Hints:
By secondary structure, the chain is of the alpha/beta class.
Amino acid sequence: MENNGILALFDIDGTLVRGARCHYQAFVESVKKFYDFEEDISGINYAGKTDPQILREVLELGGFSREKIEENFRRCQEYMVQYYLENVHKEQVKALKGTSNLLKDLKKENVLLGLVTGNLEPIAYAKLGKVGFDDYFPFGGFGSDYEDRYLLVKTAIELAKSRYGFKGEKIIVVGDTPRDVQAAQVYGLKTVAVATGSYKIDELEKCGADYFMDNLSDKENFFKILGHL
Ligand SMILES: [Mg+2]
């Protein structure tokens, strides 16, 4: 695949799409099945966290020991994926404002596109498939790779280099939470924080992103940012 020397890494929830009721339900159902624990995840702030990280926090809040958590941790995630894929037809996902046009234009300009998302990989692609975005992203770092988000950034960049011949240093990371920004800052990368998720612009401003956008509909501004990398 040709690329123009620029890599753009996108978060999914709150950045490209909104609404993931079925994903939420997959957590609830798998925790119930493998830990006999009836708890929802509404009590924790899960924005920007990875699926395994959320799962672990829910179970820790439920008083499960580390050993107990580990016993079924992998199988629980496998079931989350199974549940999601079986129920994704019910999932109500909407592309966020401007994302469809922006992705089209980025592809046209041969910007290499990748994902950095806490979603387990099959869930990420099934979710994006609902709005036709799955084909834009041939690779990424996923919650199924690591529990810590910053390692997902590294995974995505390594794949860009090893599989897609990405050589440049021009990388932008786009996300909707301070966690997205912090994960990219570990590597000194430039970030765009977009206020289409659970944080408003003034809340995001405190996280030290390089650029802020209300949504991704201002393509001109986005390409200007790429020009400054
Ligand atoms: Mg997000």
